[in-house]
Amino acid sequence: MNDERIDAYVAQLGGWQRDAVVRLRELIHEAAPEIGETWKWDTPVFVARANVCAIGVFKDHVKVNFFKGATLADPAGLFNAGLEAKASRGIDLGDGDVAKLDQEAFRQLVRAAFAAQA
């Protein structure tokens, strides 16, 4: 289920950042078709019973933050941000990085995060 506020947010993004958010959103929904979307903290948040992950757009990168990422196995080593945080973990992606992302490993992370919150 898509949230119209997220659709509007994505539509106003420019260039590579819009393309990255569109693809990441697709991958999240492919991994967990039942996942919900909401708008919190001025950013897209994907939810089950609790927050699963969020996509943030910054000047030089797009971040996918997994709220309980510290509890998830990451055999592909996708987490590259917030590694010192108690609970969350992030994946920072610059221009062109989404095309190089191990998409199946990303979907596995989303599935695991969703299952932990479902």
Break the fold down into its secondary structure elements and pairings.
Blueprint: H1 4-12, H2 15-31, E1 36-40, E2 43-47, E3 51-57, E4 62-66, E5 89-93, H3 97-100, H4 103-117
Antiparallel strand pairs: 1-2, 2-3, 3-4, 4-5
Helix pairs in contact: 2-4
Question: Mean pLDDT, nearest integer?
Answer: 95
- How many structurally independent domains? 1
Percent of sequence in beta strands: 15-25%
Strand order of the largest sheet: 1-2-3-4-5
Molecular shape: globular
Number of helices: 4
| Percentage of residues in helical conformation | 25-40%
Name of the CATH architecture: Alpha-Beta Complex
Structure summary, number of beta strands:
5
Output the helix-strand order: HHEEEEEHH
CATH fold-level label: Aspartate Aminotransferase, domain 1
Q: What ranges have pLDDT less than 50 throughout 5 or more consecutive residues?
A: none
- The N- and C-terminal alpha carbons lie at a distance of 16 Å
Described by strand count, sense and barrel closure, the largest sheet is: 5 strands, antiparallel
Q: Output the structural class.
A: alpha+beta
**Cα-atom radius of gyration:** 13 Å
At the first level of CATH, the class is: Alpha Beta
